[in-house]
Amino acid sequence: MSSNILLCGVGGQGTVLASKLIAAAAVEKNYEVMSAETIGMAQKGGSVFSFLRIGSSLYSPMFGKGSADIIIAFEPAEAVRMAEYLKDGGTVIVNTRPIMPVTASLGGFDYKAEKMLDYLEKTAAQLTRIDCKKACDALGSPRVTNTVLLGAAVQSGALPFTMAEIESVMLKAVKPQFRELNTRALHYCEYAGQ
To answer: By C-alpha distance, which of 183, 190, 137, 192 is closest to 21?
Structure first.
């Protein structure tokens, strides 16, 4: 069993926590896991991405273009930017709500989420679109985008974990007062029929 996982988004969306939960689930199953994160301008809404490798005889947390089994994208433009890492037959889980980076707004760039999603539709063998704004509104908190996307990724079958395994590590990682909310967020796509 080996799996190359790429998470990408914008600072403040919970990308790093989602990466840590996947790594923790791998450790719980006694899998070897390596990760590398680039959080650069995360505090200012800049790009954030995490590479995760799960398997045996791992020598580097990074992997080459065309090697990701799954991309979990917290923002459509970040998904497009990292799409070259997706392997043929790979899966993309994407939040459909764009967050325009400061550089795009200052530069007057055309920033249409639908164009980006159309590109992903042609690129990914399996694409799951999640409107995380709608999900967060239904759940009553704007802070569970990461858990919603993580649940969708598990449900897609592209991660080597069951929902119960991810839920177990998530419950250990979040504060007690947020456990019930995050449990509902993790299962949101199952209940919403996505």
So the answer is: 183
Q: How many CA atoms lie within 13 A of 82 on its CB side?
A: 31
What gap in Å lies between CA 23 and CA 83, rounded to an integer? 22
Q: What is the largest CA-CA distance in the chain?
A: 48
Question: How many angstroms separate the CA atoms of 58 and 42, rounded?
Answer: 28
d(CA 53, CA 73): 17
pLDDT in tens, 34-85: 999 876 554 556 788 899 999 888 888 899 999 999 999 999 999 999 999 9
Query: Residue 66's domain is classified under what CATH number?
Result: 3.40.920.10
Nearest to 94 by CA among 79, 114, 111, 112: 79
Q: At what angle do helices 145-156 and 15-28 cross, to 10 degrees?
A: 40
For the chain, how far is it from start to end, CA to CA, in angstroms? 27
**Confidence at residue 174, expressed as pLDDT on a 0 to 100 scale:** 94
- Cα–Cα distance list, 18 to 48, 108, 111 (Å): 12, 32, 26
DSSP secondary structure, 74-142, as one string: SSHHHHHHHGGGEEEEEEEEEE------HHHHHHT----HHHHHHHHHHH-SEEEEE-HHHHHHHHT-T
- How many domains are contained in the chain? 1
Q: Which of 121, 141, 24 is nearest to 76 (CA)?
A: 121
Residue 59 structural domain? 3-192
